[in-house]
Amino acid sequence: MNSKGRTTIEVGAAGVAVITIINPPVNSLSLDVLSSLKERLEEALRRDDVKALVMTGYDGKFSGGFDISSFADLQQGKVAQPKPGYISLDMLTDTVEVSRKPLVAAIDGHALGGGLEIAMCCHARISTPNALFGLPELHLGIIPGFGGTQRLPRLVGLAKSLEMMLTAKLVKGEEALDLGLVDAIVSPDQLLDTARKWALDIWEHKRPWNIASLHRTDKMESLSEAKEILKLARAQALRIAPNLYHPLAYIDVVEEGIVSSPRAGLIKEYETFEVLIRSSTCKALVHIFFSHRGTMKVPGVTDLGLVPRHVKKVAILGGGFMGSGIATSLLLSTYSVILKEVNDKLLQAAIERIKENLQSCVNKGKLSQEKFEKSLSQLKGTLDYESFKDVDMVIEAVTEDLSLKHQIFMDLEKYCPPHCILASNTSTIDLNLIGEKTKSQDRIIGAHFFSPAHVMPLLEIVRTQKTSPQVIVDLLDVGKKIKKTPVVVRNCTGFAVNRMFFPCTQASLLLVEHGTDLYCIDRAFTKFGMAMGPFRLCDLVGISVARATEAQFVLSMPDRTYKSMLIPLMQEDKRLGEMTRKGFYLYDERRKAKPDPEIKKYIEKAREISGVSIDPKLAKLLDKDIVEMISFPLVNEACRLLAEGIAVKAADLDIASVMGMGFPPYRGGIIYWADTLGSTYICSKLDEWARMYGNFFKPCDYLAEKAARGFPLSGTTDPAKSRL
Ligand SMILES: C[C@H](O)CC(=O)SCCNC(=O)CCNC(=O)[C@H](O)C(C)(C)COP(=O)(O)OP(=O)(O)OC[C@H]1O[C@@H](n2cnc3c(N)ncnc32)[C@H](O)[C@@H]1OP(=O)(O)O
């Protein structure tokens, strides 16, 4: 079997051994790397010609931490440490940290998770200004397992370490120096020489031997302060993630080290790590980690060897809420942006919105004043197409009016250079229709952003049968550069995210008309872990948008829509959602939502029009039943997207559900979650509800077939069945 990574050792004339971790692309710590590292360390400690050691990572990257792809082997017991806690105690604490030869970490790139934990066992840390440090393990449903829970608080103080861990915050070189996490900052070309000299200086007592990180006390708060900080951290963890156990387990482990001893903390750490790595939360979050990266791999597109073309200048048509958000995203990533509006008043308003967006980044400390000025200087407003002659990409973000879009795309074909990518931010209109009056269909593509576009992480890239792979590769690259997660889907009404989410609103309306309490539905959803319930979301998006979207779906899938008058009735009465401070909820000036007893009136009227009577069973549903009755239709639609080839991979829908709909990542995304319940169970429930409440619930063929065989829904789709 090929080994997964290795380390090398090179002993220089001055007697400093440089050990390099080699496991591209991020130098993760596979078990092979760890075992090779142990051998190299032992060799260096044994050799008489070695006075001191430097540890570094290959190709300017220290280490991205423990090898996440080996979690599955650990979970299944296929590999194990020689004894419990071996790496943390025997290797790092009792060999490296106590060694009589000084060991200095030379850090460039990233020192994350296990990478940082190893660096913290060293006797000094030298880094470059751009190096990134952090313990992001909680994002994977685990806690650090190589001593990070004990050493980070002792190096940077308890309060700061809790902040870094609970928010998975990464710190950069200079901040790490201020915190005391590193001892010196040097440029990349001086890194190794400085580290070598530093190690030798310690050996020659020209620099002090620092006390081992595990036993430092100078940064730690007093016991009473520490207890108060831990109490607040527990409250924060419960508030941020009430369904999650592992952040609390992490705080318990830190506490053990403080109230008992650091060694007791290390023991509790590895015991807890062993439990958490086998948890369903960890498995789901690891699935999200790899699926997230997998969205950049599109079969038949990204495997053709195409190189993304350099996109420098982007034009945006329409500076409304979406257009200005998209422009902000591009400016933040140093693209030159031309913003076109139809008159000066709208143009000035759009520029003002962009300024506000950028200013809010400055206020949150995410953008320096200097970068704010630079970004803004990259923005040019215009009222005509004159300056479009050298743009590389256009993103149209005007209102959803097909004839207007027809005209725009014909104009774009006339004014833009032939290589220019012609993208539309439409959320519902068929891209084939948008481009039908042009001869440029190979460069027409959907770039569907989610509102607010400069904040939401998902970018749905929609390709038609004619979109060229080169254009898809180009947009994937732009998406990555503007720090979005792109998911490539095929063209259909609502594309993947809106189409998948639509049955959720529909099922909610059906339940409400049959007697389920509207606010109980939203509560059950948020308790399940969704960012917000379907009715709160409707208010946020706006009742008019919800109605317009509904109209599109009623047209394209009349056989499976539930026709409720609740939303039209509210629209008639100008209860338009959060923007009018009245929708399903009432809103105060701080946008805090409060249930409104008046909503009953609208429900009763809608019920009367539909001719539906209250079903006593539905009026008393448990939270679990509410979640299932609303989410299973969503799963059903996701299955249709897979069967039709709209989405190529189930994992893409998992990411789309997490990033576009607020589905809880620790449940792994919509299809992953469905598979934890089983296709047979979901299908039988949908069948039962279809018999009782109509075709809206009827399982699609894909789901029924998988259920009949007891297969998971995430199995690869048959490309032959793709409709394109
Ligand atoms: C015992 C310990 O306490 C437990 C641990 O250490 S758990 C691990 C903790 N570490 C992490 O969570 C870091 C995870 N990685 C990252 O955040 C980012 O990959 C990074 C900042 C290191 C680099 O980001 P970036 O340059 O954008 O590259 P990115 O696309 O994310 O990753 C490159 C490749 O490396 C893989 N990779 C990244 N980190 C990995 C890791 N720790 N293990 C295995 N593979 C990893 C990715 O899956 C990707 O693979 P692909 O090319 O086949 O898709």
UniProtKB/TrEMBL annotation:
SUPFAM superfamilies: 6-phosphogluconate dehydrogenase C-terminal domain-like, ClpP/crotonase, NAD(P)-binding Rossmann-fold domains. It comes from Datura stramonium (Jimsonweed). Its main location: other. This is 3-hydroxyacyl-CoA dehydrogenase. PROSITE patterns: ENOYL_COA_HYDRATASE. InterPro entries: 3-OHacyl-CoA_DH_NAD-bd, 3HC_DH_C, 6-PGluconate_DH-like_C_sf, ClpP/crotonase-like_dom_sf, Enoyl-CoA_hyd/isom_CS, Enoyl-CoA_hydra/iso, NAD(P)-bd_dom_sf. Residues 494-587 form the 3-hydroxyacyl-CoA dehydrogenase C-terminal domain. It comes from the Eukaryota. Residues 313-492 form the 3-hydroxyacyl-CoA dehydrogenase NAD binding domain. It is found in: Peroxisome.
